[in-house]
Amino acid sequence: MSPKAWPVNAADRLDALIAPVIQARRTEGLYRQPRPLARLGDTRVRLGGRECTVFCSNDYLGLSGHPEVVRAWCETAEHEGVGSGASHLVSGHSVIHAQLEEALAEFVGRPRALLFSTGYMANMGLLNALVGPGDVAFEDQLNHASLLDGGWLSRGQMRRYPHRDVAALETALSERQEGRAFIVTDAVFSMDGDLAPLSELVALANRTESHLVVDDAHGLGVLGPGGGGTPPALGLSHADVPVYVGTLGKAIGTFGAFVAGSETLIDYLIQRARTYIYTTALPPALAAGTMAALQLARREDWRRDKLSVLIARFRAGAEQLGLPCMPSMTPIQPLLLGDARAALQMGQALLDDGFLVTPIRPPTVPAGTARLRITLSAAHEESDVDRLLDALARHAHLLVAQEAAQ
Ligand SMILES: *Cc1c(COP(=O)(O)O)cnc(C)c1O
């Protein structure tokens, strides 16, 4: 039978199946689309003909456009080309990758580090390799999607515990029958900006002989002496946090991720982490750019100092305005709106005033907790923060109306 004889073609048949999902998202105010931006500077973009200041990027130290980073990237690309050509275990692992892995291990005070193409892949590969049949991964309810997916797709079980609730986790751990237990957490929660109770989790892991896995995507470069991350900021060492995940696309300003830990852990991941083994190595030029960014992140304490000043300034102003701040001392400063449509409305009002703060809605955050996830960067000026606060004050009635509706 010729394909023409079918009443609908194959493409239409598939579309009919999936289109209702899109329609439902639209009806609920949850429809999403990427918006193409043109970058004008470290915190400035053009969006749809309008210039605006970005307050939702994870480039916390303002390194993503730094001339030294760009130069290192370009110089290496000129010598080594752009693509790595193969996976790390075939012929894609260059001298520069090896140097970067050494620098990363040193940066976070661990014996060794292993590069992954993205944080998403690092978490998927890591949890898949560690959590085997009969094992259980206990995860904070608000962990990043990549940690949750890694747990679900592992061959073990996944259980979520209430956000930061060490007592509930302890009960869940004591009810476990067999297998090994892993405690898996964000160090800085990506959508809330608050910290995991890492010291308590370390103690609990030691008491219950379970294994702690910490994803420090938003702490690396920002917290701790020299930007060494959340564990040193809390006085914790490699011995306390045996599995450490860092990402390079946020404060470090480039792209990629790594897992750091003991020689044995890294050796094991090289054998078993499928997202390390079966994928093309990062471009060596990217590794060179990242080396330059790491040095800047370590050396330029003023970036962290400036960030602290901006965070304090924003919080003081927002609290004075009575805005719905969350308990965060990190560059992630969300304003909780609750309703997805209210968040959209506020995002649009800010955009009309020249500020890009993309509203974060379910399913990225739990239902009823839509928010404006405002983030600060060392590339912002105090006057940028003041202008943002002025705009928030102008639109505060949108927040008030929202509270009344709840
Ligand atoms: C962003 C993020 C990731 C993913 O990292 P990518 O390199 O962007 O894939 C993983 N974990 C957390 C906590 C994150 O915030």
Q: Would you kindly provide a written description of the structure presented here, covering whatever features stand out?
A:
With 406 residues, this protein is α/β, with parallel strands linked by helices. Helices cover 45% and strands 16% of the residues. The protein has helices at 10-27, 67-80, 88-92, 95-107, 119-130, 145-153, 166-175, 198-208, 230-233, 263-272, 274-277, 284-299, 301-320, 340-352, 382-394, 396-405, and strands at residues 37-39, 44-47, 50-54, 112-116, 136-140, 157-161, 181-186, 211-215, 243-247, 257-261, 332-338, 355-356, 359-360, 370-375. A seven-stranded mixed β-sheet has the order 4-10-9-8-7-5-6, sandwiched between helices. A hairpin with a 4-residue loop joins strand 1 (37-39) and strand 2. Helix 4 (95-107) runs parallel beside helix 12. It is globular, with a radius of gyration of 22 Å. Pyridoxal-5'-phosphate binds next to helix 5. Pyridoxal-5'-phosphate (PLP) binds next to helix 5.
